[in-house]
Task: structure prediction
Amino acid sequence: MREVKFIYKIMDSKFEKNLARLETLVMVITTLVMLTILAIVVGMRYVLHQDFYGYNEIVLADSFWMYFIGAAFAMRREEHIKADILKNFISKKGGAVMRLLADIVQTAVNYAMVVLSYNLVASNFRAWTITPLWEIPFFVPQISIFISFVLMAFYLTMYMIRDYNDLVVLFKGRD
Amino acid sequence: EAKTLKMYIPNAYVKESQQAQGFQAAVDQIKKDTDGRVAIKIYYGGQLCGSYEDAIDECRNGTIDLAATWPTKKYDKRFDLLNLPCFAPLGYKQYGEIMFSKNSIVPDFMNKVMTEVGVTSIGGFPECYTTYSFAKGKRPKDFNGFNKKNRSLRVPGMPPYRDAAAAMGYQTVTMDSSEMWNAMQTGQVDGGAASPLEECWFLGRDIVKHIDYNKFCCPPTWIICNNELWASFSADDQKAIIKNFYDSSMKVLANLEKKEAEYMANFKKIGTEIHTYSDEEIYKLHTELRKKVWPNYYEAIGEEFLRKLDKQVSAMKP
Amino acid sequence: MIGIAILIIIGGLLLGTYIQYAFLAAAFFLVGTLGYKTSFMLTYGYSVVNSIVLLCVPLFIAVGLLMNQSGIGKSLVEFVSIFVGRAKCGLAVVAVVASAAFGSIAGSSLATLSCIGTIMKPRCAEAGYDRGFTAALVSCACPLGLLIPPSAHMVLYSWAGRQSLLACFLATVGPGLMLVFMLSLCSYFILRNNPNIKVNEKIPLPELLTLARKRTGSAIPALMMPFIVLGGIYGGFFTPTEAAAVAVLYTIPVGFFVYKKLTLRNLYDTLVETAASTGVIMVMIFCIMILSRIYIMEDLPAMITEHLKNFSDNKYVILLCTNVILLIIGMIMDDTSAILLCAPIFIPILEEFGVHPVHFAAIMGVNIGIGVLTPPTAPSLYFGSNVMKVEVAEMLPTTLKLLVFAWLPTLMAVTYIPALALWLPDTLLGGIM
Ligand code: NA
Ligand code: NA
Result:
């Protein structure tokens, strides 16, 4: 068993840093857009007595980018929720093995979601499904789901290899 | 034994609703007539899909087998046809003539679009007339006129509804149907468009105090089936399915007027005002509204078709 | 099949996968074995998350984070302590009441915990409170943030269960207030014979009045918030989503110009934090709803109802069973998944036995509150230990006391006295009881 060293290079690379920066930029902009639109809706109703018709279509398209890029960013920081029930009852080595197993399961499931989300985008692109008022194509928000699962696949794979390395180091220590 | 087929019906059709019961009756009879070869389970209250819009997609892909749903612009702009206002001013008999009768140009048109979208069209199923309903003291002075700028009305996020309400002079407010009753209750909007009397009764009877029974719209749901599944039925079974849904739709249609009279009586009992129109009044109102709203849809649905339909509607005089 | 799927979920959780993947693995297993096509999964997930009502979630998260940054929490605590400053368990009551007050603005319990916890920690230490006690008390009081409206949890319940959000918000107020009382009472009994606790010196009345005036003055912008949010919703100015947005937009200038704690830098960080936390919840919703759709296609609620009916047809027995099941689920699952999974399944079952969904909202709310405190999966407990820098083991004795003598009685009361939940929504909105 050998460590896969180049993963640390990737984790520390400029590419990874810029990716994170891009993600935060999308998150901040989409959150601000959401707040602005809702403020305009309320303002238009009480100040101008007018309806911002179909605002829901815009704000929901925006929110998907916020949700899913946010989720990818949280995956980068490993902030998603897990139960971690057995953590306190298991030896260090046992824990490392379990973590790697968990990594493998979730990475595999995530790759399946990459495929499914690609199919979702592709089928809505082909059918050119649109919203009733602004005629926003459905794939516009849905691309964020695809990108998110791709990014999460990237981070999950990276951390899986890191955890594998940790495991190798841990077991080598015994010899 | 045949596998039980899954059929979607929308949120609003809870188990007790007339439509849900109509679908159930059809499905029971279909099972009998096909000696159990076609067994359908109805999932009430929109349980099967995230939104009724998805029903077409899921039916096409075969995750659900059949659906009764409101087709929307999402899949084809021509589907806005069913949401157009004022195609049946004179009551359910005319509604039946326009939407379901072989003499009408509507069913063929719908079948054609459904085929193009990729599902098998079985036929329409009647919805009740939708109304405008208002919280206490929030009705406009005059229901008949066209200037109601001082009254806000929640409309669903579909252009024909907005156009109709705007043509009558309301200040429209778009919001999710799930927020409508709350918003009327707290006074955020004065009223809401597009709820049938039955829905007003079940969801809003503590809130609604005035109802404008202006018959402006009654979009039928359309029953569809997955193509491959449909092709797997024998010709006789196909006939039995179409026939039973059609018969049941006619029964529901015949019953709608009676049921609606019951709801009106219920509302009157609890002191709710219901504004109704004479045939002459509503004929005039609807003619005017069609003139204002329908041309917006010439491009999407087809000018020639809509002019023909307009003629078909106006031909029936009070 | 469904049994195996549940085993997969539990296996995934035990293994320590992120929660959404445990649910997805179960969903893939069911789709595979039951012969469904996979195409519906994402279509369905997309269309359930595509909801204006759910926008409340990020907005309530943003409000909580911004209040932490902007110093609103501190002025709330100062204000509350005017009233209960001198009693022996005074600071404990301040912590409980401040959690409730903060909860009336913030939409989440963790926001309540991190804000009130950070503020109370040094004060309680100074007054001679045991660290474990303080941490446990604040952790046990923080679910008040989800019982006192507005609350992201109730948004999720009403959304997943298709119930009136306004009514669900009001249903948890009764049990919330009862819990404020019970937690304070328990604190009194735990602390009354503790000789280490210092009580504030008596302040002469004129000075006290000046102090009160000053604190009230600086608390006014903070106290305005419940009026804006709840008054805005129930007064008919905004939908809940709009009210949450208005609250965010209100906090920003207040934080910048009134309390002068907010900077552009931490505003930016807060927006990033908001999107990240929201992303975590939304992906969970997305995945859990896919599984719950499959359960509905397989008619799980009807199956459970059948079993329950064979077991008993007494409403009170069924409610007891429900609570036991929910308590177990609360131990294993986190709060969001528990609500999303249980609301659509339990509402039709309980309706069959004559329990109003709005009543169940309150039962569910209290159960979720207990669930975030009961190990092994106890987000509030762990978060509390993290915020207060106290070992979980040190917190456990007090946590256990508060669970048994404050939380459980509240759960029993809300379960068997429906009026505790239903009186307020029925009075204000009508048509429930
Ligand atoms: Na709250
Ligand atoms: Na727990």
